[in-house]
Amino acid sequence: MPVKIHVQLFFERTCQKCRQLVRVMVHDYGELTPEEADRAFGLHDFTVYPLRCPECGTEEFPMHIVGVDALKNAEIFRTRIGTADLPVVGGDTPYAVVRSLEEMAEYERGLAKLADLFKEKETEFWKSFTSWAAEDWPNRLKELSKIELSLGLSAVGKPAPPEMSAAAHRQHALKLRDDEICVFWRAANRHLIEKEFLFDPPDFWNTEAWAREYGRERVLWVLLNFPLPEKLERWRTEKLAPLIKKKSGALWERVRQLGQALDKQRRRAEELSRTVFDLRQEIACLQEKLSAEREERHKLLAEVGKLRQAETPAERDRAKLDRYKALVKELQEETKRLYSLLPETVSKESVTEEPQTEAVTELPDPRETLSGKIVAAFGFAREPWRDSDAQILWHHGDKWDAEAERLAKEADVLVVLTRFCSHEAMWAAKEFAADTGKPVGFARGGGAESVLLAAQNAFRTAIPPCRTGPVRPA
Ligand SMILES: [Zn+2]
Prior knowledge:
Blueprint: E1 5-14, E2 21-32, H1 34-43, E3 51-52, E4 59-60, E5 64-69, E6 74-80, E7 88-89, E8 98-99, H2 101-135, H3 137-142, H4 146-155, H5 166-174, H6 178-197, H7 207-214, H8 216-225, H9 233-240, H10 250-310, H11 313-341, H12 344-347, H13 366-369, E9 374-378, E10 385-386, E11 391-395, H14 402-410, E12 413-417, H15 423-436, E13 440-443, H16 448-461
Parallel strand pairs: 7-8, 9-11, 9-12, 12-13
Antiparallel strand pairs: 1-2, 1-5, 3-4, 5-6, 10-11
The protein binds zinc ion.
Zinc ion (ZN) binds at residues 15, 17-18, 20, 53, 55-56, 58.
């Protein structure tokens, strides 16, 4: 019972981006003997397609085809795709050895003819092979192994005992008659011809290894004389170079050089294809990054667009106002803190200077512009003041209390008496003004005239709550 292996075939690549091994099963041959497996591989064509990395999603063509024995979980062979050993047919793929569909069709037509052609020319082939061997019989025998010698001797009915040495076998073979040589030679070479030259397609002929195993002279003769369909002739030339010795004549030397050049070019092509692989993966990574960044940019732009659409001018102003209010609140807190640090006695008098100038020269009579308006003045507790045009509601300005709030609400304009009003009340008045959009003015004096002037000035320079930047008096 022959040993069986369970062969599975995989496409494999290593992801350039995340170094992940990507492996996809292409075929499960089931359990086969090694010989059956060998034959099965030769019969199959597979479509090569890009493999997707499960880690990062990049897609790239596989680099190797790997045969695995599933029973032992052991690798049986590993071949690089798109090389002389495993060419790829057609398509836009990053491989070094790619055959066009036409080339492949021609190659396959040649292969299909190979067996028939050999059968047709077999007799003739063996005849000339034998006569070549007979010409230098002792030397030809030197290239035969003990097994080959013994197979030949058995075929002519002169088997040698197996314990006999190869040299003794050879001695026997030397004494063969001409008619025996013919049978002997064919039997001794059956394996070389049937299991090597006929079994493998010419592009897989491993003439270099065969030369080592069967002898260079013999393999060279077969290579030069093996019946090949015209479509496959080019392989004869390609497989010739490794068999040619240096200094074997100018013509041979030329063949050897051409073969070496061809080999060099093939290696170069493989190197380039490796570079192409790397570059393609790099490009894929960069493209992925780029598209992610593009997406992010689109998202941001869409968000900005949405914000722009959602924000009406009123909402924008409101937001700005909220920010201003927050600032005012902060300043107020800070002022409160600083104020609490001052000695009690100073607190009432110590009031900050208001940067805004009180007086605007050559103003018209305040009463004209303030006609019908209510002014809330912070810094002095007095009875309400009134004349025919304007009214002043007074508040002590020590702190911002419910009374201050009420008066501020009632008033059309707020005036802070900077030398008398507390920091707290001043900031609160400012906040109130920012909140409501009511103008706020600042007076250094404490009398009704000062208040009215400051109120009028406030109206003239009132900053609309939502405007930014310097505002000039009208
Ligand atoms: Zn990956």
